[in-house]
Amino acid sequence: MQKRYKVFKKVRESELVSSLYLRLENNEALAPFKPGQHLLFKIKPEGQGHYIQRFYSFSEGPGKDYYRISVKKELALDNTEKIPSGKASTLLHEVIRVGDVLEAKGPMGDFFLNSKEQKPIVLIAGGIGITPLLSMVNAIVGSKSNQNVIFFLGVTNSSDHIFKSHLESLNKENSNIQIFICYSNPLPSDQLGLDYDYFGFVDIDFIKSKLSHTFFDFYVCGPAMMMDYITASLRSEGISDESIKTESFGPASVSYSALSDEGFKEKSIVVTFKVSGRTVDWSPEYNSLVELAEAHNIDIDVGCLFGDCGTCLTEIVAGEVSYNHATMIQPDPGTCLPCSCKPKGALELKI
């Protein structure tokens, strides 16, 4: 169910990151959430005829009278001129103002801290992937838990080291929390030992040097390449899959060269949603079948929008799909992940 949230505060955390503070437009009490979860926003970028969906994690712990999300404006791959590529993130970062209203579903998501356990945890974040992990560590501090936390954050340099002073305070004021910062390309003014703890990306050798044992649960969030490296490295160290929790972060509107446009050259493609009793025309302006459904008020349950959670797994009645990118979930024959694929031709889904 979509709810309407009013932005009552907006903070520029860095040149590319803004935090939005939200309350329900009707002033009702906010639904509780688990640290690490997110909201799924329904957003209509300027100049676009249909809505798109994007999820943004809570960057503050639960129990407040507001939600906070922190959004990075995604840039084109060649960002020398800081050209934006993320439609939704650019709108939230540059256009949305205090007093504006946003629509979102949730809270939702399977990536969250199990607050009933006291097992020590390791949090590993890359860039804006800090947001759900910051919610976790804030929740631990807010509950006055003594759960041990070792937090690794990798960023480029001080220019995108968001929440720097807050992280320093957490590190200084809580004996059960250790935070280590890695800069991959420090500025001349950045000081090792003061602004950051390690020169380079977050790597497994640095992580191992700070762990006295491996009896931890590991929570990893960041760009796909970083997460693939970290998870593979942890497994090579004997860490079980059950102890490794991951959440993908990245621009959802990126154009993937692996996508096959073969089917889109046909004059007309129709998609039938069998259960809903609707048949609609496909258009290349949509990034996925989920966007097509959303534009026509057809509801599909979604979680991650990257094909990593399986929430949207749907039966194909007839036709074929083409995937925008590799997905963590491998659909069985006769099924698809509408959040990450497009029709090759006429398609019928059991939705």
Short description:
This protein has 351 residues and is α/β, with parallel strands linked by helices.
The fourth-level CATH homologous superfamily of the largest domain is Nucleotide-binding domain of ferredoxin-NADP reductase (FNR) module
Largest sheet: number of strands, sense, barrel closure: 6 strands, antiparallel
Poorly predicted ranges (pLDDT <50, ≥5 residues)?
A: 77-84, 251-266
Compute the number of helices.
Answer: 6
* Quaternary structure classification: single chain
Would you spell out the secondary-structure blueprint of this structure?
Layout: E1 3-12, E2 17-24, E3 38-43, E4 52-57, E5 67-72, H1 87-95, E6 101-108, E7 121-126, H2 130-142, E8 149-155, H3 164-173, E9 177-183, E10 198-199, H4 204-209, E11 217-222, H5 224-236, E12 244-248, E13 270-273, E14 278-281, H6 289-295, E15 314-318, E16 321-323, E17 335-336, E18 341-343, E19 347-349
What does this structure look like?
- The protein has 351 residues and is of the alpha/beta class.
- It folds into 3 domains: 106 residues, Translation factors (Elongation Factor Tu (Ef-tu), domain 3, Beta Barrel), CATH 2.40.30; 128 residues, Rossmann fold, CATH 3.40.50.80; 88 residues, Beta-grasp domain (Ubiquitin-like (UB roll)).
- The protein has 6 helices and 19 strands.
- β11, α5 and β12 form a beta-alpha-beta unit.
- About 7% of the residues have low confidence.
- This is Ferredoxin-NADP reductase.
- Its cofactor is FAD.
- Keywords: 2Fe-2S, FAD, Flavoprotein, Iron, Iron-sulfur, Membrane, Metal-binding, Oxidoreductase, Transmembrane, Transmembrane helix.
